[in-house]
Amino acid sequence: MNKYRYLLVHDLRHAVRDPVLMVGFFGPIALLVVSRFGFPAAAEGLSRSSSFDLYAYSSFTGITLAITIPMLIGTMTGLLMLDERDEGLISYYAVTPFMRRGYMLYRLILPMGLAVSLSGIYLVFSGLLELQWGNLAVLILLALEAPCFTLFLAAFAANKVEGLALSKISGLFIAGTIVVYFVPGVWQLLGTWLPSYWIAKVYFGIEAASLIRVSIDFGIGLTYHLALLFMLVKVFEKRAD
Q: Can you tell me where the transmembrane regions are (predicted)?
């Protein structure tokens, strides 16, 4: 455990020195504050000025922001991996007691753990989402989303500059909630390749109390996330060699 404690301390020191990486820590907190206090204020203001009911979109807003949390965490840890690759640390870790497998395990568990804790806090305290036991299924998918974002950057970006550019493009991946909420009927199939699509499908299925549909969507979403994670690990390992 000491070797993983060393990596954790190294990550914390690195993140404190880099404002970009600090967004991964403070971004989810900012989203929680906006959801808890900013959304009700905006809803009341719109209701008085134009009779527009923003609360009708509270679930859509809540699940979209919830999906943003693992994206922020994954971006932070992905940029950390790019820094380590640029500095030759990944090759160094491969010949130490960490070994490459231990390093990869740590780099997958860290974003998952952060995503579980921060996303769980958001689901409970945002005030925009219904509290149901079924949200545990949503939390599982959110936890898998974080390492997928991490490895997406680490596998396809050549350096940290490219990683920052890709992180902006990867923000488009949260569009799955838009597809589920606004796109009608069979046209929703266009969004099935987006991981966030399955998270939104599960959450809205829970709201509709469609347990059979939720079970099917969760099964597909879980399989898709695990397959995507496996593929990204393989691509990263080839890139790191």
A: 20-39, 59-82, 103-125, 137-157, 169-190, 210-233
Q: Structural domain tally of the chain?
A: 1
* 235: CB partners within 8 A, 6+ apart: 151, 155, 156
DSSP state of 157: -
Residue 155 included in any domain: yes
pTM given for the model:
0.90
Per-residue model confidence as pLDDT tens digits over 44-62: 988 888 878 888 899 999 9
Calculate the alpha carbon distances from 70 to 48, 50, 64, 187 in Å: 35, 34, 11, 26
User: Cβ contacts of residue 59 below 8 Å, gap of 6+?
Assistant: 128, 129, 130, 203, 204, 207
Q: In sequence order, what are the residues at sequence separation of 6 or more whose Cβ sits closer than 8 angstroms to the Cβ of residue 131?
A: 123, 124
The alpha-helical segments, DSSP class H, found in the chain are 2-17, 19-33, 39-50, 58-86, 89-94, 99-125, 135-156, 160-170, 176-182, 195-207, 211-240
CA 59, 141, 168 angle in degrees (round to 5)? 75
**Averaged pLDDT for residues 34-42:** 93
Identity of residue 96: T
